[in-house]
Every structure is written in C-alpha cells, then in structure tokens.
Amino acid sequence: MSAGHWTVLVLSLLVGVTAYRYLIPHGPGMAPPILANRFTALGALTLHAGFAATALILGPFQFIASLRRRRPGLHRTLGKLYVAACLVAGAAGMVLAFGAKTGPVSTAGFGLLAAAWLFATGRAWRLAVARRFALHERWMVRSFALTLAAVTLRLYLPFAFLSPWGYDDTYRAISFLCWVPNLLAAELWLARSNSARAAASHRSG
C-alpha cells in the first residue's frame, strides 16, 4: 500500500475506535456540543457513532487490491457490512443534523453530508449488485470520501476552540469543510485515474 493509504488506514482506525466511546453511557471524553444535540437522548447519537465508526474502520480495507483479488468473498462480506453501517449512520446523522445547536447553517452542512453519504453508498451498492464493478468502485471512492468526514472534522475541531471568530461560527464552517473538500479530492483523484487509464490504453493500442 502507498503511504497515503497507510495514513488513511491509521487515522480511520484511531478515529473509529475512539468514537466507540459514545456507546458507553457517560463515557470519557464526550464532546459537550455533541451531547447538547436535542436528538442525542433519542439514541440517534449512539446509532450514528457506532455505525459510522464501524464504516470508518472497514472502509480502508475495501481498497486493498490484493485483498480483493485473493479474498473476493471477504471483500463482499466486508462490503455488505460497510454499506449497512453507512446507511444506518447516515440516516441517524440526518436526524442529528436537525438537532444541531449551532443553527441552520450546521443543519444544512451536516444534513447535506448525510444525504450525499446515503446516495453515494446506495449507488455503489446497486452498481455492485448489477455487477457494474468499474462504476461501483468509483462510487465507493465517493462514499468513503464522505465517511472520512469523521476524520477531517476532528482535524478541524481544534481550530474551532482557537478561532478568533468563536467556536459556533467556526463549527458552522466545519459542517461543510469536513466533507466538501474530501469529495472534491475524490473527484480529482477519479479524473486523474481516468486520464492514466486512457493514456495506458492509448499506449498499448
């Protein structure tokens, strides 16, 4: 694997494992702004944190080419678990978006993230069922770029506490910054991959 893949894998495992603390009642290190969400008491946070953490942990392994070649059955099983985890976490995330204490901008940011995550993952799953694997892989890249919002959000959070604009305003910006650049980076990577494949096909032809 490349250095970039290793970095994503390590960060995903660290964030995913630590996010399971939200499954423990009154567990350590819970962020007060997250607990302040008015839908936390209904169990939406538990569903979102638990299943999003699972998707985050499983996701990087789906992009290991050698694993796909040597253990296709395992790849399919992990893929089904990943898709199920994303769909549950995305639905719970949509509920939490409407309970955001930082107002309608955060609701829009996190709500659009949840909608895009559900759409991309569902599209990837349907393409796999239809055995359109090239397109399936492209949509899975988009899905995991959105799953990685859990990592990028945590990378941005320290700035919310240090920002001269105040925590709430910075957090509103983070509700978009945690996923829009990820999706743009995924699209650039997919476009570059297409260009590389086209150039290789032209040379071989």
Question: Can I get a quick summary?
Answer:
This protein is mainly alpha-helical and 205 residues long.
What profile does the largest beta sheet have? none
Q: Give the low-confidence spans.
A: none
Strand-and-helix sequence, N→C?
HHHHHHHHHH
What is the helix content?
over 70%
Shape: globular
What layout of secondary structure does this protein have?
Elements: H1 3-19, H2 32-35, H3 44-58, H4 65-70, H5 72-97, H6 104-129, H7 133-147, H8 149-162, H9 167-177, H10 180-204
Helix pairs in contact: 1-3, 3-5, 5-6, 6-7, 6-9, 7-10, 8-9
Characterization of the model:
The structure is a single chain. The chain has 205 residues and is mainly alpha-helical. It has ten helices and no strands. Helix 3 runs antiparallel to helix 5 (72-97), helix 5 packs antiparallel against helix 6 and helix 6 packs antiparallel against helix 7 (133-147). The model has no long low-confidence stretch (mean pLDDT 90).
Keywords for this entry:
205 residues, mainly alpha, 0% strand
